[in-house]
Amino acid sequence: MFDSHKSNLQFDLQFHTSITVAKTHGLVTSIDEKINDMNAMIEIVFARMQTPEERNLATLVDKRGGPECILNSVGLMKEVLETQNVATKGDNGSTSREIKGAPTQPSLTLVEATKEIRKAVDTILAEDYPAFERKFGAIELSLKEMDATIQRQSDRVISTVLAGMQAGPHERIKDKVRSPIF
Asked: Whole-angstrom distance between the N-terminal and C-terminal Cα of the chain?
């Protein structure tokens, strides 16, 4: 009797475990599909955000064998850098997309470009963090100022509405001709 009860409990446990595993597998598959869809959307967004110069450089890199081939060949790297320098220069020698007040980036040499490419992502993020922090602080300050302005305007509207509600009907009349009648 106890043995049969034990085997029934084990069977039930195995049954429920297999159901849970099947549900988990389906959930993991669903999450994997969503992640793949999200990656595809991110790739589309980045592709649409590329400038014409970046698209031309990407085409050149693909024609020359891809990024790995470019990184392993000094001659191809020089060619890509020269193409980039020509593409970002206008007729007068200045960059074609200069923004007033924005810092201009000088053309990279082969050694500088190689060193920049070989940097770890963590190093790049650490170098850019102070600039990010300044920009974030400026945006945060402007949002706080906007919040204060909205709060003031909201308080003005509320006080005007409340003043109008507390006043009698004769005080809410704005028509100067009829006002003396009341």
From this structure: 97
Record the tokens describing residue 157, joined without a space. 């509207």
| CB-based burial, 20-44: b 16+ in 10 Å, e otherwise | eeeeeeeeeeeeeeeeeeeeeeeee
Domain-embedded: residue 80 = yes
| 123 and 73 in a common domain | no
Model pLDDT, residue 155: 87
Does one domain contain both 53 and 123? no
Q: In this structure, are 89 and 109 located in the same domain?
A: yes
The residue type found at 174 is: K
Instruction: Tell me: do 83 and 124 sit in the same domain.
Output: no
CA dihedral 135, 106, 85, 59 (to 10 degrees): -30
How many domains is the chain partitioned into structurally? Answer: 2
In a domain, 99, yes or no: no
pTM, 2 dp: 0.42
Contact status, residue 84 vs residue 113, Cβ threshold 8 Å: no
* Residues in the chain with pLDDT values less than 70: 88-106, 164-165, 167-182
Same domain, 24 and 111: yes
